[in-house]
Task: structure prediction
Amino acid sequence: MAAKSPPDSTPRRPVLSVSARKIKDNAADWHNLMMKWERLNDNGFTTANKIVNMRISEQFQENKLEIACDNNATEPEKPTPKYNEELDNCCAELLETLKHMTKIQLKMEKLTSTTKAICDLEAFHHGAGNCTAPFFHTWPTPYFYEVCLKLSEMYKKELKLKQTIVQDIAHSADQDLMMVYLSSWLYQPYIENSSTLLLEAMLLETGHRQC
Result:
């Protein structure tokens, strides 16, 4: 009689369902997209800061020319504004950053839609009103959708603000307004502090983070 092999003492990880694996993948995608967004936000702020500094410098030079013209007895023609290639390049760079951020926000919306579809599928399988066991630790499946929706709405509103900033920042003659645009880009008023907590909680629940 053949000897039995000793039982494997290594604890086995639970096999996740297809829906659970998808939600876990989505959580990782959320993390990656939010990190990419932050890097783009930093790059965009650097570019926007250059634009504001160039615009303020231009206004200073224009004011000096106006004063010089006023002091002259004769009234020479005002010089036409020079084409600023560096300013134009910075505007193009900021627009490119916005395009990348737009793609990220669309991917966030897609993740939210996918999570909603998983919730609907689970509800269909188990019947409305029936409580099912959590996929991971404690979160019911619909809560993943709630978190995704909250995050998605924050970034959607923030993107609209950034679109306004990109359209106006190089054309504004109001220095105070330019500084408001700059501050708004950096501090992202529509992305609440809770966004980081929501992400970390989702990563913890899905096993990407350890207690």
Remarks:
- The chain has five helices and no strands.
